[in-house]
Specification:
Length: 445
């Protein structure tokens, strides 16, 4: 009987927490302290599904509309989901098993809109069935799609990947993920608790659309941050920070492109780069693998090396699995090393054995490009690393604390945190202030 009472108590508390969590964003102050400085071009629609008019997704949608001047377009189902969350998930699962959609009431035509924000809660790792129905019944050719989502702790799952699949003829911008609960979002090194607020939404808008404006106005695909290093024989290695997980390495007349992706925000015109001698791809996610960009950079004799899954998708190039090595042009030694998630609930993003990190050795200079990984045990085997690129954006890769731990294990001379999206990346430098590692923050959002 006592056990039954305890279980009932847990259920009641969980139910109360869920109800509170569903509305936690709405209960916070909606007065932003950050101004929108970027220009969102064209006519804007903010399309979203939320179970409640004051639910988390609805709240974020209203913040976006408030700052962009966009028109709110809520998606309403013909048949409402049950009020109880558990019953809702059961109904949603049934929808997904029977075609994946749920009928929605009519939505105004999107013909006149240039930018469409699309928001959803995350159920079973992706967008909800009403949003699936919206994708199925509308055309997005030529439009700019900006996805956002809210979740209760499981992250965005496959949402951003699935949006790109649903809108192949659209330009899809970097998405926003908001955890809609009253739990601690993240804890800074100082012990200060930080929750998602309206300011996070405005900062995201500024990052996405300021970058777009900059790339449109400069018209120069080579206007990027660069760092130079010397090999043992005094040869120069230049590393260019393109964005997120994409970088360019120049060595002894060679052009090496790592995870080149054109459409990931900010869009990059790779036709303005020299043709590549070597292209490296770590894995198949959309922010790392883009066959069209590879086609743009490829020339006769380009050596393309990828993990086996990407090589199979391409139908050409060299597949290199974890633990395998290859000698490239100019006697560059390339080692494929493991890259995977270890945190429970995150392992589906990058399962062990599928994806690659790479170590390049150029005349004694050793560069470690980690790919999408957490601080895995195999890092302890990496020796004499001069330059390291470590990813930082949970739930997909590492937290700042994990990056700092990995860096102390690897002990590179120079560390570039990359793939960091909206992570407050300066925390990595703060956490490594006493390490002797030269932490360099570049534009790898």
């Amino acid at each position: 009987m006592k056990v039954l009472l305890v279980i009932l108590g847990i259920v009641v508390v969980a139910a109360i927490a869920f109800v509170a969590g569903c509305r936690i964003l709405a209960n916070r102050s909606t007065e932003a302290t950050v101004a929108l400085t970027a220009k969102v071009p064209g006519k804007i629609a903010v399309v979203y599904y939320s179970q409640s008019k004051v639910g988390n997704t609805a709240t974020v949608a209203k913040w976006i509309a408030k700052h962009t001047g966009g028109e709110l377009v809520p998606l309403e189902t013909v048949e409402a989901y049950p009020d109880a969350y558990g019953e809702t998930l059961k109904a949603a699962k049934k929808d997904m098993e029977n075609g994946g959609t749920r009928a929605i009431k009519s939505v105004p035509p999107l013909d006149g809109y240039d930018v469409v924000f699309i928001g959803t809660p995350i159920w079973y790792g992706t967008y909800v069935p009403p949003v699936a129905e919206f994708f199925k019944t509308h055309s997005f050719a030529g439009k700019t799609i900006v996805p956002f989502c809210t979740h209760g702790g499981g992250g965005a799952g496959r949402y951003f990947v699935d949006v790109r699949k649903a809108c192949p003829a659209a330009t899809v911008k970097e998405g926003l993920t908001i955890r809609g609960s009253n739990q601690v979002e993240r804890r800074l090194g100082t012990g200060v608790t930080v929750h998602h607020t309206e300011d996070d939404v405005v900062n995201w808008l500024n990052a996405v659309f300021a970058a777009t404006a900059a790339s449109a106005t400069t018209g120069d695909a080579l206007d990027f941050q660069t760092d130079t290093f010397k090999t043992q024989e005094g040869k120069t290695v230049t590393i260019t920070a393109i964005k997120h997980a994409s970088l360019r390495i120049q060595y002894d007349g060679l052009e090496i492109q790592v995870d080149p992706v054109a459409k990931y925000a900010p869009e990059t015109d790779y036709s303005k780069f020299p043709k590549a001698d070597v292209i490296l791809v770590t894995h198949e996610h959309f922010d790392h693998f883009d066959s069209d960009t590879i086609a743009t950079l490829k020339k006769d004799g380009t050596e393309i090396v990828a993990n086996p899954a990407v090589q199979k998708m391409l139908g050409f190039g060299t597949a290199l699995a974890n633990g395998e090595s290859r000698v490239l042009a100019k006697e560059i030694n390339l080692d494929a090393v493991p890259a995977y998630n270890t945190t429970p609930g995150h392992t589906q993003f990058h399962p062990k054995g599928r994806d690659n990190g790479y170590v390049l050795t150029m005349d004694g200079l050793r560069i470690y490009i980690a790919g999408d990984t957490e601080d895995i045990p195999e890092m302890s085997a990496l020796k004499d690393i001069d330059v390291a690129f470590l990813p930082c954006n949970q739930p997909y890769t590492m937290t700042p604390e994990q990056v700092a731990k990995a860096a102390r294990t690897i002990k590179p001379k120079v560390l570039f945190p990359y793939h960091y999206s909206q992570t407050p990346i300066k925390q990595v430098a703060d956490l490594l202030a006493d390490s002797g590692i030269d932490v360099r923050i570049r534009n790898y959002q």
